[in-house]
Structures are given as structure tokens and as C-alpha cells.
């Protein structure tokens, strides 16, 4: 959170009552300690179940008025967005309204264009977030030479996945609802806290109209206030919270609601609206406001509870001990579909984007239906010469009525009102508008599972799917980021409130390390879902490509096989049975990797020795060949010399013979 954001920039956003509250609180309970220390005060605020118990009625009144005025400012800032969202929800729910124009009971069809877009987006996103029984995985931060952090990350991922799917039974149902409503309204909230009555963490899905944040806020973290509207709080709930000490016992002013069709006529309880606001107050008069959660009744503005929205780890001081920053805890996680196109806080959904075109399409189709009705029903003028009883004339199908008018009188005395068949131009325009609307939502053709046509190459179809998925991937990455924030909130709550016995029972004895597993500095938690939200075919193709690396030196095949099985949507428990974390001999994975590296090095050395031996043998062979060539050369030379000597002797003999013949 930016420090500058803690102070109001625009005076009009902050109620004028701020100055009345500055430095008003000095709890008498601290006087026994002598000189007042602000750090001690903040620590006591953290430990207090309800700080409002130590405040006077006048002080609580000022806080209540300030919080209510801030709520009004924030609520007014988002009125344009709320108006468009309400219209979009009406169209998505296809609420039928009676029309009086051009006549009572005229056609008023609502085309399900927004509904179709929301359902098809939710079908894709839900299958990615809830994959088998795993939704969370641990992510190691920093080095992990011995594999201890990775083992801890797997324990945390297994437990938090069980926690969300099995323990918080409302989480999966609310996630399904979130993914259907978010594409329509563009913004949703999830509220997460520890419920002491249930003795577990709890999540609540909140519609955007029930969580009020100033529309000019940059983000949830930097917003001055966040107000949760809690409707229909019964008097029974108020008594329960008062007697249990959660709320102050105050007199609330509210008129009793009249029984309606929606409520049981025998229900005589009063119902109230409470506002739970995360805001900043200076309760220790040090000039720096701290974050608190103030709960008050809307009509009377009476405060019933104040709790600190920070802990010791959230307070940062300078060398002199003065507070320079306090980081507030986040109770809400906001989910945004598409960022606001005007730079505001609340996101944009298909509802707001498709609203004008959908209303246009509805108008056109209703005009076509009305034109058909007008053409089919007829009507017109009757001449006074036609002798027919007065009053309105209606006909049943196949009915003939008698009249005293002649055929000539009928031919001349009946004038039908001009009417035409439904316009072909309007029909073509309807098709164009619907195509434009579906283009915005990306819900047509191949992305919706429809056939792209005949004789279309497979590569073209894959390219269309890939291009179309880019729009969904961009939206889904925002959901992925919000899921990551929500999982971090749950991770922090587990560190503070973890039931160690439950953790021990969920995980086997060999895995359990209890609360230290949720220490925040060396581990992160992320969704198990793929942020790129690939299709099943793309995921399987990628896994198949990775399988080609199995068998290569230094490649561990187990992660590749696990990813391939996950792409086939094989349940995690079956994958664990097929691929145990440890081999049957009990050798840890990192030891297996070391042994594999040693074996690889030994194999490399053996190969080099064999290469050297081959080179030595090759040199020896070459030496023998050289010696053989030398001997052969010497033998040839000796033979040549012998032949020369023989030839010389033969020449001498011939000469001797010739000489004897000459003498004779």
C-alpha cells in the first residue's frame, strides 16, 4: 500500500467530521502504566475483542457518523456503474415486462445473448479451476538443496485443497456461482475470515452491489474504505451477538417491516441493515490513522463493534520508534473480469459491453413479431351501408357469418388497414447485430464447439481456436491472480488458527509438520490451474511432446508422466498410486538423482576409456602396417636386384657364346 494513499487526496471524499475525531481517544485503562506509549496502545487494540467497549457514547456517535458519511460518498460515486449493471442483470435473467406500446400485450422478447456468453465462459473456466480434487499447490521460495521445502509445499497443497473442497463446503458452490455471475457484472468479491462458532475458516461470495468502494479508487488495497452491506439482520441475530459479547448492547431505531409475500407473514421480527466498514481512524492520537473494522447499524448509525484490522507484523516504525506505516489486513478478494474502460475501480463484464447491442437486437425482434401479429390479425373500416350488428366483430378459425349486406356492398364497404409482412431488412439487421454481439463475447463458431464448415483444414481450425482462446486467457489470468490472493489469505489464516489435530488427521503421520508448514517467508501458494487455460487437446499435445524427452540422459521421467496423466484428467490419488513419491527401495528422489548423475559420469568415463583403447589399437595397427610395407618394399628391392644380377649373367653368357662362335 502506498503511504500517500493513506491520507485523503480530495477533501470532498472525506467527511468534514474527520477533524472532530483527530486525537480524541486516550483510554483511561492505560493510566496505571504511567506515561502513555502508542505501541502499547496499538498492541492492546489488537488483543481487544471489541474496542468500542472502551469508548464513550459521544465518541462512538462521531465514529458512526463519519463512517456513514464516507459510505454515502462511496455509494454515490458508483451510481452510473450500478445502473448499467442492474440493466445487464435484467437482460441476462430475461425478465419479462409487460408493454403497452404499440398496444397492450405487445411482444417483449429478451434474447439470451448475455446469458449464453456467461454460461460458456463459466463452462471453460470452472473446468480449469476445479481439476480433480486439487485446487492449490505450494510454491517454493528460495533454494531447496535437500528437498525439504518441496515436501512441505506438497503437504500444504494437499491440505489446502482438502480444506477448500471438503471442509469449506460452500467454497466450490460459490466458485461455480462466481464464474457465472462475474462475466455479466464484471466484478465480484469473496469475503474470507475465521468463524469461531464453526471453528474453521469461512468464505462468503458477495455481489458487487453489496460491497461499496469508491469508484475512483485505484485498487482494493489503496481504497480508503470498503463497506460490506449486511441486509436482513434479524432481531434474533442481534440478541445473539449481544449476549455473546460480540456486539455492544445498544438501542436501535428502525421501523418494523410489514410482512410481504417473500417473507413469512407470521415472522414478526424486526430486520435491520448493518454496515461493516474497513476504514482508517486515529485512536491513539499520534497523528497517524490505523486500519479498523467498524460495524454499525445503517439507519441509526450506532456502532456495535470496532476491531483492529492489523497485527504486530503490520506495523513499521523508524529508528525513533515512530510509526511510519501500517499495513491493513485484507478481508476481501476482488475478482475483475475486464478492467474498467474509463479507469474506474469496478470492472466491466459482458453485461455492460453487450448491453446496447442486446437492447437493439431485442427491439428489432419485437418489432418483427409485432409486425407479424399486425399482419396476421388484420382490421380496418366497415361502411355504414353494410348491415351488420353493432359492436366488435371477431371470427373463429373456419367460421362464416351471415349478413344482410349484398356482395357488392361488402366489396365496396370493407377497407382493411394497410399492413405489411415483417421487414426482410429488419431481419437482416437483426442477424448483423447478433453477430456483432457474439463477436464481443467470443461465443460462436469453433470456440462454442460448432462445426467451422466443410473442407476446412485441421491446421486452420487449430489456429482459430488458439486465436480465440487468447481473449479468454487474458480474462482468466485476472481470475488466476485473484485466486492466488485468496489462497494467500487462507494460508495466513491457517498460520494463525490452524487446527493441528485436524491437519495431522488429514495428512498421514509421515507428512505432518503442523503449523510451521504455514510459515509465510519461505513458501508461497498458487492455484493448481494453468493460467493460460489451454484446451484439453492443447494440454494433451504438450504432454505428448514432453514424453519424447523420456530416456534422455539427466531427464527425470516422473514429472513428465505425471503431467501427461493430469492432461488425461486421471484423479490425483490414482496418479499417486501409479507414481509413488519414493521408489520401493525407499531411496529419496534427490538421492536417486545423485545416483543417476554418478552413473552418468561413470558411463561417460567408460566411453572415453573405450575411445582411448580404440585409438591405441588403431595406432598399433598402423605401426604394423607400416612395418609390413617396409618389409614388402625391401623384398621388392631385393627381388629387383636379383633379377638385375640374373639378367647381367645372362647377358655375359650370351656374349661369351657369340665370341666362341666367332672364333670357330
Describe how the helices and strands are arranged.
Blueprint lengths: L17 H4 L16 H10 L9 H21 L1 H14 L20 H17 L6 E5 L7 H20 L1 H17 L1 E9 L4 E7 L4 E2 L13 E9 H9 L27 E11 L8 E8 L5 E6 L6 E3 L5 E4 L5 E5 L13 H28 L2 E3 L24 H7 E3 L7 H18 L16 H40 L2 H7 L16 E5 L8 H12 L9 H11 L4 H7 L10 H75 L1
Antiparallel strand pairs: 1-14, 2-3, 2-11, 4-5, 5-6, 6-7, 7-8, 9-10, 12-13
Helix pairs in contact: 4-9, 5-7, 5-9, 6-7, 9-11, 14-15
Written description of the protein model:
The protein is an alpha+beta fold. It is built from 17 helices and 14 strands. It has helices spanning 18-21, 38-47, 57-77, 79-92, 113-129, 148-167, 169-185, 235-243, 350-377, 407-413, 424-441, 458-497, 500-506, 536-547, 557-567, 572-578, 589-663, and strands spanning 136-140, 187-195, 200-206, 211-212, 226-234, 271-281, 290-297, 303-308, 315-317, 323-326, 332-336, 380-382, 414-416, 523-527. The strands form 5 sheets. The chain has a 5-stranded antiparallel beta sheet with strand order 4-5-6-7-8. A 3-stranded antiparallel beta sheet has the order 3-2-11, with helices on one face. Strand 2 (187-195) and strand 3 form a beta hairpin. Helix 14 packs antiparallel against helix 15 (557-567). The longest helix is centred in the last third of the chain and has 75 residues, at 589-663.
Amino acid at each position: 500500500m502506498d503511504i500517500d494513499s493513506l491520507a485523503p487526496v480530495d477533501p470532498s471524499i472525506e467527511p468534514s467530521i474527520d477533524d472532530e475525531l483527530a486525537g480524541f481517544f486516550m483510554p483511561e485503562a492505560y493510566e496505571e502504566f504511567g506515561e502513555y506509549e502508542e505501541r502499547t496502545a496499538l498492541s492492546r487494540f489488537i488483543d481487544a475483542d471489541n474496542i468500542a467497549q472502551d469508548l464513550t457514547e459521544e465518541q462512538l456517535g462521531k465514529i458512526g457518523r463519519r463512517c456513514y458519511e464516507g459510505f454515502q460518498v462511496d455509494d454515490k460515486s458508483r451510481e452510473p456503474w450500478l445502473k448499467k449493471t442492474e440493466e445487464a442483470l435484467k437482460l441476462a435473467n430475461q425478465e419479462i415486462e409487460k408493454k403497452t406500446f404499440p398496444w397492450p400485450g405487445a411482444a417483449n422478447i429478451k434474447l439470451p445473448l448475455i446469458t449464453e456468453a456467461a454460461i460458456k465462459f463459466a463452462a471453460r473456466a470452472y473446468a480449469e479451476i476445479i481439476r480433480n480434487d486439487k485446487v492449490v499447490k505450494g510454491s517454493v521460495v528460495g533454494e531447496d538443496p535437500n528437498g525439504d521445502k518441496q515436501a512441505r509445499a506438497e503437504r500444504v497443497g494437499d491440505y489446502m485443497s482438502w480444506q477448500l473442497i471438503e471442509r469449506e463446503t460452500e467454497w466450490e458452490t460459490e466458485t461455480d456461482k462466481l464464474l457465472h455471475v462475474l462475466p455479466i457484472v464484471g466484478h465480484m468479491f469473496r469475503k474470507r475470515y475465521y468463524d469461531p462458532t464453526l471453528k474453521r475458516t469461512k468464505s462468503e461470495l458477495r455481489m458487487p452491489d453489496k460491497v461499496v468502494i469508491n469508484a475512483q479508487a485505484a485498487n482494493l488495497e489503496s481504497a480508503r474504505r470498503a463497506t460490506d452491506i449486511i441486509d436482513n439482520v434479524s432481531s434474533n441475530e442481534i440478541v445473539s451477538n449481544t449476549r455473546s459479547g460480540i456486539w455492544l448492547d445498544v438501542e436501535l431505531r428502525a421501523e418494523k417491516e410489514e410482512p410481504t409475500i417473500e417473507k413469512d407473514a407470521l415472522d414478526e421480527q424486526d430486520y435491520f441493515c448493518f454496515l461493516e466498514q474497513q476504514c482508517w481512524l486515529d485512536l491513539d492520537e499520534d497523528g497517524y490513522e490505523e486500519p479498523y473494522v467498524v460495524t454499525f447499524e445503517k439507519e441509526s448509525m450506532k456502532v456495535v463493534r470496532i476491531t483492529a484490522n492489523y497485527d504486530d507484523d503490520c506495523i513499521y516504525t523508524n529508528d525513533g520508534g515512530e510509526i511510519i506505516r501500517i499495513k491493513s489486513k485484507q478481508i476481501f478478494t476482488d475478482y475483475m473480469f475486464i478492467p474498467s474502460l474509463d479507469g474506474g475501480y469496478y470492472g466491466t463484464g459482458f453485461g455492460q459491453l453487450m448491453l446496447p447491442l442486446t437492447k437493439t437486437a431485442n427491439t428489432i425482434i419485437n418489432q418483427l413479431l409485432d409486425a407479424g401479429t399486425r399482419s396476421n390479425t388484420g382490421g380496418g373500416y366497415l361502411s355504414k351501408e353494410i348491415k351488420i350488428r353493432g359492436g366488435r366483430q371477431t371470427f373463429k378459425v373456419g367460421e362464416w357469418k351471415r349478413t344482410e349486406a349484398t356482395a357488392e356492398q361488402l366489396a365496396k364497404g370493407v377497407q382493411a388497414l394497410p399492413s405489411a409482412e415483417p421487414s426482410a431488412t429488419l431481419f437482416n439487421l437483426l442477424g448483423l447485430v447478433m453477430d456483432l454481439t457474439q463477436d464481443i463475447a467470443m461465443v460462436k463458431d469453433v470456440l462454442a464447439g460448432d462445426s467451422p464448415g466443410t473442407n476446412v483444414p485441421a491446421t486452420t481450425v487449430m489456429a482459430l481456436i488458439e486465436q480465440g482462446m487468447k481473449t479468454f486467457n487474458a480474462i482468466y489470468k485476472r481470475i488466476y491472480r485473484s485466486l492466488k490472493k485468496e489462497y494467500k489469505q487462507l494460508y495466513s489464516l491457517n498460520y494463525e488458527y490452524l487446527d493441528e489435530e485436524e491437519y495431522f488427521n488429514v495428512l498421514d503421520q509421515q507428512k505432518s509438520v503442523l503449523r510451521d508448514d504455514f510459515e509465510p517467508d519461505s513458501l508461497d501458494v498458487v492455484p493448481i490451474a494453468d493460467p493460460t487455460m489451454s484446451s484439453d487437446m492443447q494440454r494433451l499435445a504438450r504432454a505428448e511432446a514432453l514424453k519424447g524427452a523420456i530416456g534422455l540422459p539427466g531427464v527425470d521421467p516422473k514429472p513428465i508422466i505425471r503431467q501427461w496423466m493430469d492432461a488425461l484428467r486421471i484423479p490425483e490419488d490414482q496418479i499417486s498410486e501409479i507414481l509413488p513419491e519414493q521408489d520401493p527401495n525407499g531411496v529419496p528422489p534427490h538421492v536417486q538423482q545423485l545416483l543417476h548423475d554418478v552413473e552418468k559420469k561413470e558411463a561417460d568415463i567408460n566411453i572415453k576409456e573405450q575411445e582411448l583403447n580404440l585409438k591405441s589399437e588403431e595406432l598399433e595397427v598402423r605401426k604394423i602396417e607400416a612395418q609390413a610395407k617396409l618389409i614388402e618394399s625391401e623384398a621388392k628391392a631385393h627381388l629387383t636386384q636379383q633379377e638385375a644380377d640374373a639378367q647381367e649373367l645372362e647377358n655375359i653368357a650370351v656374349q661369351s657364346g657369340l665370341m666362341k662362335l666367332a672364333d670357330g
